[in-house]
Amino acid sequence: MNILNGLKRFIFKTLSLTLIIFGIVSFQHACAEMVELAVLYPEVRGGYSKVFKNILDGVDELDNVNVLSRRISNKTKVEEIDEWLESKQAQTILTLGQRSYKVAKQLKSNLPVTIGAIVATPNGHGGISMDGSPELFLQYLNVLAPDIKRVHVVYSEKNTGWLVNIAENAAAIRNIELLLYKVDNLKQGIKNYTEILNKVESNKDAIWIPLDRIVPDKAILPKILKTAWDKNIVVFSNNPLHAKKGALFALFPDHKLVGKKLATIAVEQITAKGKYKLFPTTDLKLAVNRRTASHLGLSFTKREQRQFDIVFPSR
């Protein structure tokens, strides 16, 4: 009986101590100091302004972060930003857009820099590239066009090489053959697309158009889409406008979710000790062209259709 009573007292004391410690940790977490996050974003107009607004809305959703926003124009001086960061006691920097990133690279501050809202390649900074995750592209291809087992990709090593490595692993897992065409300039890109369009086979091949500056758009896109229609070839892209024009589907960033994730990365960079990493975008929306799908003989369940964020044509 004494042993049992002693055991009860031990359990009670241990539980009490655990609750006290938990309470202290919870109190400390609740009272955690706000992180001073400086966000640099470009002065833009039109549709692009909405993109940056949505990203900033996402940044604002992160808890325990005081967002310090500063608009960057062509006339903004680096010295002004240095002084502003110091006066605001900023702890970490998030740059949105190429102009903001260019300014950040010239700052005297040793604050960690996180990059977003640009098509980026690994460069020593943490952040998220506007490029969509290759794994998700191939995952959606499996769902929307499961018979496709061969995908053609024209790309440049400088811009898209790091994503191709991810794509190869994702393709191998799904038993998809990835046919890669590395090019260095626009002329080579057009030549490779012409060769691909001549040899693709109906209901067997797909063409993936990545976010790559070397990939011709206006010069070859109409031809790609016409040949795809004539030969029953699946085309998918990073650009929702391509889906509107006839590609089967496109994946594009959910800017608000990307903003929140960028803010999370920026806060983590404070203690990351230089272990920065760039990620492709995984928070993506889906655009599907139902006219193209019907032409290809593809049909989707109601559950699958609920995943479509945009459907073309709208009616």
Protein described:
Helix 2 crosses helix 10. The chain folds into two domains: 121 residues, 3-Layer(aba) Sandwich (Rossmann fold), CATH 3.40.50; 151 residues, Response regulator (Rossmann fold, 3-Layer(aba) Sandwich), CATH 3.40.50.2300. It has twelve helices and 13 strands. The strands form two sheets. The chain has a seven-stranded mixed beta sheet, sandwiched between helices. The N terminus is likely disordered. It is an alpha/beta fold and 315 residues long.
Summarize the structure.
With 315 residues, this protein is of the alpha/beta class. 45% of the residues lie in helices and 23% in strands. It has 2 domains: 121 residues, Rossmann fold (3-Layer(aba) Sandwich); 151 residues, Rossmann fold, CATH 3.40.50.
Overall geometry comes to elongated
Biggest sheet overview: 7 strands, mixed
Strand content: 15-25%
Question: Poorly predicted ranges (pLDDT <50, ≥5 residues)?
Answer: 1-31
CATH topology of the largest domain: Rossmann fold
Core attributes:
12 helices; alpha/beta; Rossmann fold; single chain; 315 residues; seven-stranded mixed beta sheet
